[in-house]
Fold:
Amino acid sequence: MPTERPILKLHPSERVRRIPGAPDRRRRPRETVETQTTRFGGEFERLSRTLDDIEAGVDIAAEPNRIVPDRVLVLELKNSVQNFAREARRLGFAWMLEQGADGNDNVSDEEDLVDPAVAADPRLYALMPSREALQTLLRLWTAFTAQEPAPQGYGKWWQIFATLNVIRSWSAEDRIDQWTRTILQDQIRRNPTGAVRIEFDLWFREDPIVRLARMEAFQAKVAAADGRVLDRVLLEPIQYHAALVELPVRQALALIERAGPLATADEVMVVRPQSFSPHPPSERDPLEAVDRALLRSPTRALRSPRCSMAFRLKTTICCVIGSTSTQSTWRRPRPLLTGACMAPRWRRSSFTATSTAATRPARPNASCRARSRLSGERFAGTHPDR
Structure:
């Protein structure tokens, strides 16, 4: 019998006593009813007057800071709320996005907290309101400030009101971050006379009729700014809607200053520089066609003879991880595609395949691939840094 590879006897490990866990009993930041009434009473009074103005037929579309129906409402809370999306839908809001209130999705370590006995997790929630949802929100706020008990099924909103830190509309500061401003400034400095191509990520709307109307309104604003829409991408499976726009330099400068109709357009979620694929169309991954087909029919694409076994395995693993993720930046499971794609920077629409405690993007996603399509296939150009 060969002895070069003797059988190793494995001894059972020593049994140890399981360390019992304990619930997190740290204090959650909350304010009293009197404090919240003093801080936000004026905001809710303005919201009530806005709804009255709408009923009276007053045109308030030119006031971008007012909270109105079909304009994204932002609630910044001192602490995260479990099942917030469900509570928002209960009032009639369309849940749009969630992120850390400081602009990133890092989960703070306990050592970073000012008071380790306090579990602080500030969150930003973006909602698309209807008139009925805002009216219901006002009624609940009135009951909360009157210190009445929460109606049956709305107890979470008393927690939301008690941890409310900011209530406002989605603004130009949310749409255009400092990174985008810096890149656009550099592009204009390199080519001060040429047109500037910019990507606009639009708020995805479930209703096709509403989506078409919002796109037409956005195109009208682009035309009024002497620009033109070069390309559009709509990927319903991942709820992604974007447009590639060419603007004159003066309008790009206005965007840098967070001014003008495009900076305050209610249809726009995020403004960013045009993205470029790292490879020209002729040199791309041969699985590109399969990758695109996966968006249309995952089963048919994976059965394609052009789809290698490694690609099937990698894609299947990613999709399984995505389907089991219960906490994404959008809280909606999104298919994760592989292939040649520039590594994305932080995106609000990125999906993450981590635990429910973290929401930081982990790898290129279908939205990033869609952005590569905007710049790489039909409108290939020279990278700004080359």
